[in-house]
């Protein structure tokens, strides 16, 4: 991967577009320097290989497999998130605050989560909590 492609890859991972359309309808490339400054503003190293390693480590350590800010692109179909549930998690309780102020919430069981991705309404901020249910007869501290 060449240097520009590596920079664009890191930018995409954090939700930065490497091109935009100006007011006259012309597509413009964002400069490497600007992309690197934006990547650095996200707290990442400006070296693309190091930034990718940092992002991969954060993903491995993230609760439910999600970073504190998880981006779902508007163009993605379907708009959904994949959750990595901890061992013993039986339910996912969620609430979603839509851009218009409406709030939605629900519960997804372990079986439903395994079957499909969790769908997202357009323009929502999602808060997720998981409950861990111990099986009868399990020793304390086990799930």
Q: What is the topology?
A:
Elements: H1 3-13, E1 19-21, E2 27-29, H2 32-41, H3 48-61, E3 80-81, E4 89-98, E5 103-109, H4 110-115, E6 118-119, E7 124-132
Helix pairs in contact: 1-2, 1-3
Short overview:
With 143 residues, the chain is an alpha+beta fold.
Describe this structure in words.
- The N and C termini lie far apart (43 Å).
- The protein has two domains: 3-61, no CATH class; 65-132.
- It has 143 residues and is of the alpha+beta class.
- It has helices at residues 3-13, 32-41, 48-61, 110-115, and strands at 19-21, 27-29, 80-81, 89-98, 103-109, 118-119, 124-132.
- The protein contains four helices and seven strands, in the order H-E-E-H-H-E-E-E-H-E-E.
- It is 29% helix and 25% strand.
- The strands form three sheets. Strands 5-4-7 form a three-stranded antiparallel β-sheet.
- The radius of gyration is 19 Å and the shape is globular.
- Helix 1 (3-13) packs parallel to helix 2.
Main sheet: strands, sense, barrel: 3 strands, antiparallel
Identify the strand order in the major beta sheet: 5-4-7
Distance between the termini: 43 Å
Helix content: 25-40%
Order of helices and strands: HEEHHEEEHEE
Continuous helix count: 4
Extended strand count: 7
Q: What's the alpha carbon Rg, rounded to whole Å?
A: 19 Å
Shape: globular
- How much β-strand is present in the residues? 25-35%
Spans with pLDDT under 50 lasting ≥5 residues? Answer: 129-143
Structural class: alpha+beta
Mean pLDDT: 74
| Total separate domains | 2
């Amino acid at each position: 991967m060449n240097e520009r492609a590596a920079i664009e890859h890191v930018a995409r991972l954090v939700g930065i577009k490497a091109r935009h359309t100006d007011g006259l309808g012309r597509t413009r490339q964002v400069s490497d320097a600007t992309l690197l400054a934006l990547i650095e503003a996200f707290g990442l190293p400006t070296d693309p290989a190091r930034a990718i390693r940092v992002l991969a480590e954060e993903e491995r350590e993230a609760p439910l497999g999600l970073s504190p800010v998880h981006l779902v692109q508007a163009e993605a179909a379907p708009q959904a998130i994949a959750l990595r549930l901890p061992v013993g998690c039986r339910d996912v309780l969620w609430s979603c605050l839509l851009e218009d102020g409406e709030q939605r919430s629900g519960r997804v069981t372990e079986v439903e989560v395994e079957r499909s991705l969790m769908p997202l309404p357009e323009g929502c901020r999602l808060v997720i909590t998981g409950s861990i249910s111990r099986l009868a007869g399990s020793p304390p501290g086990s799930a």
